[in-house]
Structure formats: C-alpha cells, structure tokens
Amino acid sequence: MTDIVLIPKVQKPITLVKFRPISNRLQDVMGNCIDKAQSAFVPGRLISDNVLLAYEVLHTF
C-alpha cells in the first residue's frame, strides 16, 4: 500500500493545481532508489536503450 501526500503551494488550496507534485521534492533522491536497470519513466533514461541492448545481445551470440 502506498500513501500519496500532496504538498500545498498556498495557504488554503482548493484545486489540484494549487498542490506541488511530491515528485519534485523527491527527484534528487529517486536516482538512488530506482535500480539502474529501470529505464522507463526515469529522466535521462530511455526504454529504447533496453530494447537496443536486448537486440544486440540476441544477435551477437
């Protein structure tokens, strides 16, 4: 089970636009929490890198 906490940008937020995404706060530490093999949905990494790697492995040996 995961808890999601919304961080307000203003004193009394009414709409979701007035909340700060929690990912902005955790962005600095996420690199340490996510395995190096994870490539999708991580800034600076592309899922296509894993596809190319798999292709090269299968066609090299």
TrEMBL record:
MF GO annotations: RNA-directed DNA polymerase activity
UniProtKB keywords: Nucleotidyltransferase, RNA-directed DNA polymerase, Transferase
Name assigned to this protein: Reverse transcriptase
Organism: Gossypium australe
Native organism taxonomy: Eukaryota, Viridiplantae, Streptophyta, Embryophyta, Tracheophyta
